[in-house]
Fold this sequence. Notes:
Largest sheet of chain A: 7 strands, parallel
Oligomer: homotetramer
Amino acid sequence: MSPGRKLRIGVLGPGATASDVVALAAEVGAEIARQGAILVCGGLGGVMEAAACGAKRAGGLTVGIVPGVDAGEANAFIDVPVVTGMGEARNILVVRSADAVIAIAGSYGTLSEIAVALKIGVPVVGLRTWVLRSPDGTEPPIIRAASPSEAVAKAIEVARS
Amino acid sequence: MSPGRKLRIGVLGPGATASDVVALAAEVGAEIARQGAILVCGGLGGVMEAAACGAKRAGGLTVGIVPGVDAGEANAFIDVPVVTGMGEARNILVVRSADAVIAIAGSYGTLSEIAVALKIGVPVVGLRTWVLRSPDGTEPPIIRAASPSEAVAKAIEVARS
Amino acid sequence: MSPGRKLRIGVLGPGATASDVVALAAEVGAEIARQGAILVCGGLGGVMEAAACGAKRAGGLTVGIVPGVDAGEANAFIDVPVVTGMGEARNILVVRSADAVIAIAGSYGTLSEIAVALKIGVPVVGLRTWVLRSPDGTEPPIIRAASPSEAVAKAIEVARS
Amino acid sequence: MSPGRKLRIGVLGPGATASDVVALAAEVGAEIARQGAILVCGGLGGVMEAAACGAKRAGGLTVGIVPGVDAGEANAFIDVPVVTGMGEARNILVVRSADAVIAIAGSYGTLSEIAVALKIGVPVVGLRTWVLRSPDGTEPPIIRAASPSEAVAKAIEVARS
Lengths: 161, 161, 161, 161
C-alpha cells in the first residue's frame, strides 16, 4: 500500500438476495466508511447496492466495477463507476483492486471471486458464505466473521499487514 | 453448437499436481480426442499438459488459452495457443469456449473455473475435485464421475444436449 | 450520466514523454479538477502522472486503471487504483469509464485508445495528437484543441451532451 | 515460435465492408491456408468471414476469437471459436495470438488492432488500410502490400523472423 493512500476493502456478494443479507451488507459498507476505507464492489444491486448505500450514508467513497458497457448500470450509491464491458471477468478486477475482501452470502459469482482471491493471495473474510473442501480434505484459509463489525475489523487488520 | 462444428471439451486442473492425477488427465485428454472433440485448456503444465499430451497421442486437436503474453509458454502439445495477456482472467475464456468442462483435482484456479462455469451455465463434470456447500446448505450441480472415460462420456452427453 | 454523479474525464497519453507535454498534461489535470470532474487515466507515469498531479493539486479526485497486478505501480497522485492484471487491454477500460477523453501527444498505446473511443462512441478531444486518415480518405471525428483549457472545456461540453 | 507448431497469421478488418474488400479478404485467407499457416481472426462477418471462408476452401484451420458470450456468433467457417465475453477487448487477443497480422481496409476496430500490434511488437502488414501520422510527423512501421499474395508472403516472412 502506498503511504497516504486509503485502504480499499472489497465487498463480494450476490446481486439479488434476502433482506437479512441486505441488512448485513449495508452495515458492512457503513463500517468500511467509518474506518476511513474506500469501498470497492461490482457496482450492481443486492449486496453491492446495500454496501454502497451504507458506505455513502456514513460519508465514504464508493467504487463500482460494472460488467456491462454503460456506467448507468451502476447503482445510485456508486461515486466512481469503472466500466469494463467484460462481463463476469470483471469479478477479478474487484478482487485485485482491494487490499482485502469480505464475501457475504453466496452466489456462484461470489464463489468465483472467493476462489480468485485465494488464488492471487488477497485475504478473504467470510460472512455467512460458502464452505469449501478441497479434494485432499483441507479447507481454504477463509477468515470467518460472525458480524459486520467483526468482518470489517478483520478485513482492515489483514489489509494493513 | 453450429452444425458440423466439432464439440469442444474444456479440461480444468492445476498446473502442478501429483502423478496419479497426471495419469487421469492424460486419459481424459485421450478419450476426448477418441470421441472426436477438440480439447480446450489453459495451455500450461500439470493437468493441462497431460490432457493435451493424451489428446495429441490419440490424434486430436488441442487449444491452449494461456495467461501470459507469449505463445511460447504453451506446452508442447498445444496446436493452437491463444495468447491473452490477462493472467487469471483467462480462466473465464477457457470455460466460455467449451461446450462442457471436466474439472480434475483441485487448485484455487480450478475452483474459480468451476464457479464461473456454474455461474454462466456451462456444464461441469468433476473428477476428484472440490466439494462445495452454499450458505443455505445446498450443493451445486457438479456431475461427479469416477473415471476418465465416465467423465468424458458424461461431458459429451451434456455438451450435446 | 446519473444525476448527481460527477463527470469523469479520461486523459490518454504516453508513459514517457517530453517536458513540454508533461506541462500540458499537468494543466489538463488541474483544469479537470477545477471543473469538478473526476480524472480517469492509466495510472502510470508521463502524461498519466502529470495529469494526476495537476488534478490533486487542484483538489480533485483521481482514478488510475493500471495494467499490472499491483496497486503499487500506480503513481503517487492516484487516489483510487483499479488493478486489472490485463496489460494493454486495460486501455479499453480507461476509455469506457470516461464520459469523454482527452488524448495528449502520441504513443501507440494512445493511438489504440483513440481508436477504441471512436469505435465505441466516447467523444475524443485531441491535443497535439495523432493525425489519422482512413482508406477512403476521411478523417475520424477527433475534436482538436489548441490548449489545455480549451481541451477540457470541449471535453466537458461533449461529455454533458 | 515452438518448433513444429504451425505459424498463426491474424487477419484484421471490418465486419461489414464493400464487395471488393471481401474478395481481397477471401484471397488472403486462401493464401494463408496454402502456406500452411493457421488463420486467426475475430470470428464475425465481413473481412473475418471472407478470410475464414477462403482458408477453409483451401483446406486450412480457422480460429475465431469472438466478442460475445456465445460460440454461435462465430461465422460458419470457423473451426475453433474462442468465446471471450469481453467485447472490443477481444481485439487484443486476436493480435497477441498471431505471429503477424494483416490489416485489410479500415474500420475503427481495425485501427485499434493495428495500434495494439504496433504497441506490443506484432508485425503489421497493411492492405488498403489506415494512413497514420504521429504528432512528431513520423509514420508507424506498417508494411504495405499491394495484393493478397504479397500481403501473405510478407506476413509469413516477418512471422518467421
